[in-house]
Amino acid sequence: MRELAQALLEAKQQVGYCSVCYHLSAEEVCDICRAPSRDSATICVVADSRDVIAIEKTREYQGKYHVLGGLISPMEGIGPDQLHITPLIRRVNQQDVKEVIMAISPSVEGETTTLYIGKLLQPFTRVTRIAFGLPMGGDLEYADEVTLARALEGRRDLEV
Ligand SMILES: [Zn+2]
Predict the structure, then answer these.
(1) DSSP codes, 115-150
(2) Fewer CB within 10 Å, N or C, the chain?
(3) Per-residue model confidence as pLDDT tens digits over 66-102
(4) How far is ligand 1, taken at its centre, from the CA of residue 2, in Å?
(5) What separation in Å is there between the alpha carbon of 154 and the centre of ligand 1?
(6) How far does residue 19's CA lie from ligand 1's centre (Å)?
(7) In angstroms, what is the span from residue 1 Cα to ligand 1's centroid?
(8) 121 pLDDT exceeds 90?
(9) DSSP class of residue 159?
(10) Which pLDDT does position 11 carry in this prediction?
(11) Which residues have beta carbons under 5 A from ligand 1 (an ion)?
(12) What would the pLDDT profile of 5-24 be if each residue is shown by its tens digit?
């Protein structure tokens, strides 16, 4: 029984979330947040860790990330308080962030979330969104690397 408890405890410690960006991480702070080569002045905001992995595959992006842990969805009872929005605002206020890139699927929930965060952040920093050549409601993680790289490259200022 004690061995089982110990194993469960270790498993829980091994797969956690980065305390800075909320990406899946075995360490308290993930590899991306710790990498000195990554640009801290740019934060790419995504819905979940799968999106980080998809964008990393493009090898185009050199900034940092912030994982929301979902999207605002009144239908499912998910409000802004259930997402990692407050820590994002704190990061933008505490660091010298020059640009926040909203990389969120253009679904109804995605648009609501993008506009909500855009409104909160625009007084403090430049907010852009990736250009979607993706079908409406298409998920980031299913986009091929070329499409995703182009979407990042073609990002434009968010209008709220
Ligand atoms: Zn991190």
Answers:
(1) HHHHHHHTTTSEEEE----SPTT--GGGS-HHHHHH
(2) N
(3) 999 999 999 999 999 999 999 999 999 999 999 999 9
(4) 32
(5) 25
(6) 7
(7) 34
(8) yes
(9) P
(10) 65
(11) 18, 20-21, 23, 30, 33
(12) 777 767 666 679 999 999 99
36-157 — its CATH code?
3.40.1360.10
Residue spans per domain, the chain? 36-157
Task: Look at the chain and count its residues.
Answer: 160
* Centre of ligand 1 from the C-alpha of residue 70, in Å: 16
Q: Determine the pLDDT at residue 7.
A: 74
Residue with the bigger pLDDT between 10 and 65: it is: 65
Q: Are 51 and 94 in contact (CB under 8 A)?
A: no
DSSP structure class, residue 97:
-
The answer to whether 67 touches 49, Cβ cutoff 8 Å, is yes
Q: What is the CA(103)–ligand 1 centre distance, in A?
A: 16
Average pLDDT of the segment spanning 108-132: 94
Q: Which of 76, 72, 53 is nearest to 119 (CA)?
A: 72
CA of 53 to the centre of ligand 1 (A): 12
